[in-house]
Amino acid sequence: MADQKFSIAQARMAEVLVESITYGMYLVSFGYTVRTLLWTSKRWRRLNEINYWMMLVSFVMFLNATIAVASIFCMSWRAFVTPPEAGGGISSFADISDRCSVAETVVLLLQTAVGDAMLIYRCWAIHNRSMRMIAFSLVLWCGGIACVVVLLVYQTTLHSEALVTTTKMYPFGVGFWMITVTLNITTTTLIVWPIWRAIRENEQLGIRTGSTSHPQHNTLKNVMHIIIESGLLYTVLAFMSSVAYTSNSNSLYVISGAEVEVSGIAFNLIIIRTAKITHKKRIPITGETAPTIHFMPPQDTMLSMNPTSNHDAELKSSGNTGGNLQLARNSRTRMG
């Protein structure tokens, strides 16, 4: 049974506040993301230099975030402004099949699915497009999509009580959030593990991958921190949503409202922060904006990250996170 101490009306009002604040934060990050995707450090990008896939995903997330804010505003207006005889009043919050309520759920589930898909894509790109490395994540993602379909079918046809007390939707809702949390933890680990392993190997060999005077500017460590921090930002909200849904708490409305915006912020931060690293390193960007790290198959050679050698590391643009970092084994330098 839903928490009666925190009513639906109170939860919806709190959702308006929280979602409005996070939407404002999202708009700032979206502006910087568009600038990063369209602008180099000195000029506008040419048409053949723009990463259109990243642009498309960015605008899809922007559209979802905007619709989410419009939906909660629509529901609040009807509940607190429209008279009950015209279909308004607090009781209108209880109809989960209302168009605004359905729209809010659609954008939440779609935003989550898009964010998870981009995480899987980054993992696929980092592991040299290995389908084997993302097989488990893909299975989880497909399971999440199946839950989404069932949830939307139920929500558009039940015309009944509030979302968190709808027993028919409960197992699929719990399944969706559990899948989302598991997918994010698993896939983020698959992304971070090879980066951490490369950093550790370099440290064991006494090779610094960043500035010798400023260890904190280590490129690989910065990339790893960006991925972990953005992943945690989103995963924590997804975990909180799963707990709220499982416990039938009306706080789900507040948390899930923030999650729509936070998932977009996490996506944008990866693009913005990796592009900033690229700019600081004064690496020429030839076209696309989102860095991905590709690890070459191991050879009987030593990993060299001397930035002055063309045989050691190549930094170029990619369609993934903000400037592409390819680690290559120096075939001429062998381990003693």
CATH architectural label: Up-down Bundle
Overall geometry comes to globular
Overall pLDDT confidence? 79
CATH topology: Rhopdopsin 7-helix transmembrane proteins
Placed side by side, the strands forming the largest sheet appear as 1-3-2
Class of secondary structure makeup: mainly alpha
Topology pattern, helix = H, strand = E: HHHHHHHEEE
Number of domains: 1
Please state the CA-atom Rg, rounded to the nearest Å. Answer: 23 Å
Number of H/I helices = 7
Textual characterization of the structure:
By secondary structure, this protein is mainly α. It has a single domain (8-282), classed as Up-down Bundle (Rhopdopsin 7-helix transmembrane proteins). 62% of the residues lie in helices and 3% in strands. It contains seven helices and three strands; from the N terminus they run αααααααβββ. It has helices at residues 8-38, 52-80, 99-126, 131-158, 170-204, 219-246, 251-280, and strands at 293-295, 313-316, 324-327. A three-stranded mixed β-sheet has the order 1-3-2, with no helix packed on it. Helix 2 (52-80) packs antiparallel against helix 3 and helix 3 runs parallel beside helix 5. The longest helix is centred in the middle third of the chain and has 35 residues, at 170-204. The protein is globular, with a radius of gyration of 23 Å. Residues 211-217 and 282-336 have low confidence and may be disordered.
